[in-house]
């Protein structure tokens, strides 16, 4: 896969471009509809100054729960009420029964997937970004799930590949200009997971966001299915990548599937960069929306 470093404020992001260089592993503005995935006690405490994305659910110091109705940099839920809505927390424990993709549909989408990519791993990861596939109407929720999984399918050959195949690239993904360096070794930060997370600065950023030390333990992304899915959702929900918006916001705000491609691979594929790769992603998306019983919406290409 083609890895690149995005400059400026998005320099902490390098993502996969095509699906050919991975190896099977051995082992917003719309209102969010809650998934009811976690018991109340499992949602995190709100922290002032911590960035939140649409759909995030937190417990405030007054013991009440709030869900972000808009992305915000950690505004107080009881003061900045445009950014937060009260949330009725009634989940009965860990689980993701509210996910719009059933296990049968997931298996239909990925009939030849690597056993590493489990449905339970995906559903376990969803609680990290509760706004994913729960924001907006039922149609929008299904479209977002289809869009995410379509891009994942393209990046991994239908979830067949877990790690980057071209081992000659492995030593290239260490940026020693970062103050934390590459503590796991120069060749430890190769592409892994559904969106092929790579580079030490990406492992650091994703790990910090998820509360997992991926800088020192990058191998977790290829050994723990839930962690692998979490890194993909981290990018999808929080990173603009090579585009002007996150893929999550592109789907929930009506920009269309094409803008998710732009976020993931920018001009490498969009604006005539590689029409065949764009069409492959679109083909997956059209297939997956059909499986989920919804429409594709407009703006499929980029």
Explain this structure.
The structure is a single chain. The chain has 302 residues and is mainly alpha-helical. The chain has 2 domains: 1-30 and 99-295, Lysozyme (Orthogonal Bundle), CATH 1.10.530.10; 38-94, Seminal Fluid Protein  PDC-109 (Domain B) (Ribbon), CATH 2.10.10.20. The protein is 31% helix and 5% strand. The chain has helices spanning 103-109, 119-125, 138-156, 200-210, 220-223, 225-238, 247-252, 257-265, 275-291, and strands spanning 22-23, 57-59, 65-68, 84-87, 163-164. Strands 2-3-4 form a 3-stranded antiparallel β-sheet, with no helix packed on it. Strands 1-5 form a two-stranded antiparallel sheet. Helix 2 packs across helix 6 (225-238), helix 3 (138-156) crosses helix 9 (275-291) and helix 4 (200-210) packs across helix 6. The radius of gyration is 18 Å and the shape is globular. Keywords: Disulfide bond, Plant defense, Signal. Residues 43-87 form the Chitin-binding type-3 domain. Pfam families: Glyco_hydro_19 (PF00182). Residues 1-27 form the signal peptide.
